C-alpha cells in the first residue's frame, strides 16, 4: 500500500514538474516586418488571408466557434475592431475582463486556434457601431471636436489607449503573441487631414511598448490616401481589388506594402431598407485578383454578429438625413449572424483552397437552434407609471448633457401664450411622440427634416405638452458625427420658443430595467402609448433562437434581463437574435417595450433570421 501511495506521489510530482517546465518555456517569438512590396514574417513574404469579426458583437461562448469557422474557410488571420465605448461606458471606468469585454482572452483564443491577429483599436473605428466607438459622454462638452487634437478628446483617447495597451502589449508577435499589426485610427482620409493627430496616436502605441508595424485604411483614392496615411505605415485599401487600386497605393508611398484592408463580401442594412445582398460576381472578381496576385486581404466582415442593446450606429450624409442601422449585423456575411456557413462561405472556401497546398480544416458543426411556440404577452405597465425625478431647465437639454447615452426621455412644459398651431422640434434626435394634455397627437422622425406637428386647440387654460424622445444610434461615419440625442436645441410653437422644461430620463438599458422592472399597476393602463408587455415561459432545452416581433410596432426587447436590441415594423428585420446562453431550462421572462402598440400581441421564436 505504501509502495502504491509512494508511486502515486512520484507520478503526481513528475506531472507537476513537467507542467512547470512546460509553462516556463519561453514564448516563441516572430518578426513581422514591412518589406517594400510584401509583408515579411520571419524574413519571408507572407500573404495575410484575414477574416474580420468583433468580439463585442459575439457572445463570449461562441468566440472559439467563430474563429474555427474562419480558419476552416481558409483564413490565417483574424482582424478585430475594439470599441472604446464598449469598454468605457462610464467616464474613467474601464472594463476589459467581464463577459465578451475580455480582449486579451479573445486574442489568446485566436492564437490557440493557430491564427494571427490584426488589431484595430480605434479610438475611432466606424463599423456601424454607435458613434464609431467613441464614448458619447464626450458630447456633454458643448464645443468638443473629435478625431483631432482637441485636448479634451485627446486626453480621453490617451487614457483609453494607455489602458488598452496594458491588456495586449505582451500579445504582439515580437513577444510570442499573435498580433501582427496595429491600425492607426480608421479611414481618416474620409473625415479629416490632421497628420499631427495621426502621428500622435501612433506615438501613444509606441510609448506603450508596441514594436509591430502600423497601418492605415482608406479608400483607394488620391485625396483619401494623402489625408489618411502616415509615413512608414502600411496601406490598407478599402477596398483594393485591381491593379488601379494598388497603383494608387504605390504612387502614394512606394516603400511600404499595400493590402485590401476591407474586402466586402456583404454590406450593411438600415431600418426601412431591403436586406443588403450584394452580387457575388463582384466579390468573385475581386477575390480572384487578390488570390492570383498573392495580395494580402481582410474580409470585412467574415462574421458580423449582433448589435445587442443600443450599440447599432447610424449614417447621415446631409444635415437632415438619418439612417439608423438595424440590430442584426448579419451583413450578408459568409458566416451568418448565428454562426452558420452560407453558400457564400462555401464559395470563398473553394476559391481559397484552390490557391493553398494544405487541405483546409473541417467546418465546425452548426450550433443548436430551437423554436418557441407563440407566447401570450400581457400589458403590464407604461413609462408613465414610473415615479422618477425630473430635471428642470430653461431650454431642453440633450441626453448627453444630462448623463444619458440613448434610451428614452420625457420632456414636459406648460403652454403659455400660443397654445395651438405649428409645433416644431429643433432638432428631434431621433424619434418623438407628441402628447397634449395626455392625448397622443403625432410622431416626429428625424430623417428628412419634417419636424413639425399641428397642435389642436384645447379647452385647458394652460395645456400640458409632453414630448417622448427616443435616442437611437449615434452617427458613426463622416462629417455629421457630433450627434447628440434628445431635443438638441429648442421647441417652438408658431415661432415662439417654449421655455421652462422638466425632463425625466429613462435610459432603458439593462441596469435601468433591473432597477425599475415593469410590474402590473393597480389602475387601468391609459391609452397614452409607451407600454411594457411581458410573459413568462418554460423551456425544456436551450438553443439559439430568433424572437419574432412582427406583431409589434417599434421598441426594444429584453430576455432574462438581456437587452437584445431594437425592432421596428418598417423592417426589414422582424426577428431578433437571442443566443442560447441567455436562455435557461425552466422559467424564462420576455419583456417588450413598445412606443406605439396599444394592445398585447403574441411573440414566437424561429430558428433563423429570415
Strand order in the sheet with the most strands? 4-5-6-7-8-9-10-11
Amino- and carboxy-terminal Cα gap: 66 Å
| Number of H- or I-type helical stretches | 11
Number of domains: 3
Query: Would you identify the regions where 5 or more consecutive residues have pLDDT less than 50?
Result: 1-24
Mean pLDDT metric: 94
Q: Tell me about the largest β-sheet.
A: 8 strands, parallel, barrel
Which class best fits the helix and strand makeup? alpha+beta
- CATH architecture title of the largest domain: Alpha-Beta Barrel
Name of the CATH superfamily of the largest domain: Glycosidases
Strand content is: 25-35%
Classify the fold: give the CATH topology of the largest domain: TIM Barrel
Percent range of helical residues:
10-25%
* CATH class term of the largest domain: Alpha Beta
Shape: globular
Tell how many strands the DSSP assignment holds.
32
General description of the model:
The chain has eleven helices and 32 strands. With 610 residues, it is α+β, with helices and mostly antiparallel strands. Strands 4-5-6-7-8-9-10-11 form an eight-stranded parallel β-barrel, surrounded by five helices. It has a six-stranded antiparallel beta sheet with strand order 16-25-17-22-19-20, with no helix packed on it. The protein has a five-stranded antiparallel beta sheet with strand order 15-26-31-28-29, with no helix packed on it. The model is unreliable at 1-24 (pLDDT under 50).
